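Example record

The entry below shows one chain as it appears in the dataset: sequence first, then structure tokens.
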Amino acid sequence: PVLSAIYLMSYKKYVMLFDIDRCIGCMSCEVACKQEKLLFQEGPRPMKVVRFEHFDENPISYFMPMNCFHCDIAPCVYACPTSAMTKREDGIVYVRDNLCIGCKACIVACPYGAISFNPATEKVVKCDFCMDRASIGLLPSCVTKCTTNCLYFVEVEEDIRQRHISKYIDPYNEFRLQEV
């Protein structure tokens, strides 16, 4: 069943944070994810490390791990015709393999490109925060294998967006993000 965002706010929620300044693009998180999900080297990538480059007088390059954001209101959950894409009470969005028919509607619906099609099984695969590991108190595989410790898996009790909204409203009635 699909749970509303208001209903989810009363539960603890898991989130993954990453320190973009520490990531060196070693891809150890990608490899750990593939091993955990028993995926082949040339196949779907539930965890992706994306390289961003800016060429100017001071060229800069940085890496950013990209996995499922486990949206509060997940478009993939609503797009799935068989309810194979499901959201748990703790916010984890996952695929129920026995219900997935491989129609790829969730892939089209995901605004972040976080869902991949596995041609070997003809089903979709995505990051589920290694929910089997999380349910027994272990960290996701990508977090444990990160060589620079730039990935953090935390449990929060509040809506994260509320932490970043300033308590002071400017004269134009707009919200400003809190400066760090």
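Notes for this example: The helical segments are 5-8, 28-36, 75-79, 105-109, 131-134, 141-145, 160-164. Confidence is low (pLDDT under 50) at residues 1-10, 164-180.
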